[in-house]
Every structure is written in structure tokens, then in C-alpha cells.
Write a structure and sequence with these properties.
alpha+beta, 8-stranded antiparallel sheet, 4-stranded antiparallel sheet, globular
């Protein structure tokens, strides 16, 4: 009968075999993760002594950059970004030429240079001091016009005494139903008229006038520019605009959209006449965003009864002038103006019905002779 007890030799062999197999298994498994060659012996890791940083080393460490501030755009009720004025009217770059006047004293040569690329004022009608010649026999304190260049490039002018006090009253009464001079058939009112799809806010009331109803305004415009430079047929419908307390006309250009250029081409000049005084703190000023006065302040013209403001939405070739962005400040008291735009070519009026420049020619000629002959 064979004994089931292993001999010392067999026991030793069995021990050796078991040990080798176990060791080999550990070696293979270790080599798969350690990166050594297959069957490479385990390396004994050395103890790493971490060196203590000195103060100098601490100072040399790059500082943690501050967190980047992100601003969340304001959203409307639909979750869309709200369009801002800067999105619509981006600020002009510094290389866009804008030249303020040297000082407030009128300089005829400076005025002449300012108009080189724009529809010009007829300077032959003014003396070296900027006073009109049509009342040259009267003292300067009377109704003589006083031409002032308030910005050189682009040119912006004011003309003091363009309307007399009585003329201002007459034109205000034209749209006042309580006045005996009210002319319902000669005007048509439109609330906040502006171009289609315009984003500018206009909360005033505009009265479109028949040319035949405003011969004094048109005669004075012809004299200002010189009847050899413009024709009455280039004038857009004359307007009387009323701003009641709290009303305004936000930032805008006076240029014509391209789709409307077939009628008279681009607007070359804007002329408006303030029909009443508005106190300095009464709002209502005409403000030019990108222009400055002779003392470096933002250019603004405060309404003064009878004073005209003249500027040029485009160059003489019809190219819009991006520097003429302007607004009518919120009126803190009532403000009224009369205004006319002058086009490159003949303009066909649309309101009031049947309104034509030809109907005013006779009356304008008579008024021109009365005023300037």
C-alpha cells in the first residue's frame, strides 16, 4: 500500500514550485503597470525629501491671476440682448477729423474755409464782423442778422435775428387753433414723423406747411444761401415742430435713406429757426454728440427766439457726413421751431395734398424784394 504522506524531498519540491509560480504571477502583474520590461524586477522607490521653500522662492511664484469679470448683457422679455445707442450709433474713431472753432469771435476766412466741401452760405451778404448788409444803415442792435461759426469742420452756424420777434409769433400762431392767424388749410399735423423703421424716438408734433404759407421763411433762406446757389424747388416741405414738456427727438442723422434718394437726392443742409426762448436749464437744446465748442465742451445750441441753426447732413456730392449725429434734448418747457431741408435737386412734396413750390414763387419774390431790396 502506497503511503499518502509526502516525503521530505517531495514536500520541498512542492514548496519551491508554489513559491516560483506565485512570484512569477506578481512579476507579470507588476510589469503591466510599472512600465518596466516584461519580467523586470520591481524597483524600490527612493524616499524623496521635499525641500522647504525660502521666502525668496515664495516671492518668485507667479501670483494667481484675478478672475475675469464678465458682464451679463441686459436682456429683454424674450431673452434677447437689448440694443443700446452705441450699437446703433458706434462712437467715431479718433482719426475722424473734427475741428472746433478757435474762439467765439467771427472770422470770415475761417467761415469760408469751413464751407469748402458743403453747400455754402453767401458770405457776400455779411460784413467782416458777420453782420448782414441788408440792414447796414441801421445800428447793430436792430434786426441785422449776426452770423456765427460755432464749429469749423464739419461747419455749424447760428444766425442771430434770422426771424424777428413778430415773425416768430406769426409762425407759432399758424398752428395754434386759438389764434386768429391759425391756418388749418395751410398745415397738416403728424405725430412724431420720421423715416420708416427708424429707431430714433421722436415724440413731438410736426406740422407740414404749404410753401405758399411761409414766404418769409423761404425768402430768407434764398438770401442766406444766395439765389444763384439754390432754388426754391430744392426745398423740402417747410415744417413747424412743437415739443411739449417731456418731449424729445433722440440721436439721429438728417440724411435721407437710400431708398428715398430718387426724390431730390440727399439733404445738403438743415436750417431750423427757434420760435421761442428756452432757459438754459429748460432742456430742449440741439446737441451734437461728436462735436465740441471752442472751450472743449460738447457742442449744444440752446433755443433762442429768432436764432437760426444751420448745419449740413451731407457733403456737396451727396455723401452723408457721419459727424453730424445730433438730438433734441428732452424739453422741460415748451419749444417750437420752424425748419426746412435743402436737397441736391428738385424735390416733389407730398403733404399737404397739392403742395407745390411753384405756388409760392410769386409770394416769395415779393417778400424777397420787401426784405432785401
Amino acid at each position: 500500500m502506497t503511503s499518502t504522506t509526502n516525503s521530505p524531498l517531495i514536500t520541498a519540491l512542492l514548496f519551491l514550485t508554489t513559491t516560483t509560480t506565485s512570484t512569477a504571477s506578481v512579476t507579470v502583474t507588476s510589469s503591466c503597470f510599472a512600465g518596466g520590461g516584461f519580467g523586470a524586477p520591481k524597483s524600490i522607490p527612493k524616499k524623496v525629501v521635499k525641500k522647504k521653500k525660502s521666502i525668496v522662492d515664495e516671492l518668485k511664484q507667479p501670483s494667481t491671476p484675478p478672475p475675469i469679470e464678465t458682464t451679463t448683457p441686459k436682456l429683454d422679455r424674450f431673452g434677447l440682448p437689448i440694443v443700446t445707442e452705441e450699437d446703433i450709433f458706434p462712437p467715431l474713431s479718433n482719426d475722424v477729423i473734427r475741428t472746433p472753432v478757435k474762439n467765439d469771435k467771427y472770422d470770415k476766412n475761417e467761415a469760408m474755409n469751413a464751407m469748402r466741401n458743403h453747400l455754402g452760405v453767401n458770405l457776400h451778404n455779411f460784413d467782416e464782423g458777420g453782420y448782414s448788409l441788408h440792414y447796414s444803415s441801421e445800428p447793430e442792435q436792430t434786426n441785422r442778422w449776426k452770423l456765427n461759426l460755432v464749429h469749423a469742420n464739419p461747419p455749424v452756424f447760428t444766425i442771430d435775428n434770422f426771424f424777428t420777434e413778430q415773425e416768430c409769433i406769426q409762425y407759432r400762431n399758424m398752428v395754434d387753433p386759438s389764434s386768429t392767424e391759425y391756418r388749418q388749410d395751410d398745415t397738416i399735423s403728424v405725430t412724431s414723423p420720421t423715416f420708416a423703421n427708424s429707431i430714433s424716438r421722436r415724440t413731438s408734433t410736426t406740422y407740414f406747411c404749404r410753401y405758399s404759407a411761409v414766404p418769409t421763411l423761404l425768402a430768407k433762406i434764398l438770401h442766406l444761401f444766395g439765389d444763384n446757389n439754390i432754388d426754391i424747388h430744392q426745398c423740402e416741405e417747410p415744417q413747424i415742430v412743437q415739443y411739449q414738456t417731456g418731449q424729445e427727438f433722440s440721436w439721429h442723422y438728417d440724411e435721407i435713406p437710400k431708398v428715398q434718394l430718387k426724390n431730390g437726392g440727399q439733404r445738403l443742409a438743415t436750417l431750423l429757426v427757434y420760435l421761442n426762448n428756452v432757459k438754459e436749464n429748460g432742456g430742449g437744446a440741439t446737441v451734437f454728440r461728436d462735436l465740441t465748442s471752442s472751450i472743449g465742451e460738447q457742442l449744444k445750441v440752446q433755443p433762442k427766439r429768432g436764432t437760426a441753426l444751420l448745419f449740413f447732413p451731407s457733403f456737396t456730392d451727396g455723401t452723408p457726413d457721419e459727424r453730424t449725429l445730433h438730438k433734441g434734448q428732452v424739453a422741460l418747457e415748451d419749444k417750437m421751431i420752424a425748419q426746412v431741408w435743402i436737397h441736391e435737386r428738385g424735390y416733389v412734396a407730398s403733404v399737404p395734398t397739392g403742395n407745390m413750390q411753384a405756388d409760392a414763387v410769386e409770394g416769395v419774390d415779393a417778400e424777397y424784394k420787401r426784405l432785401f431790396s
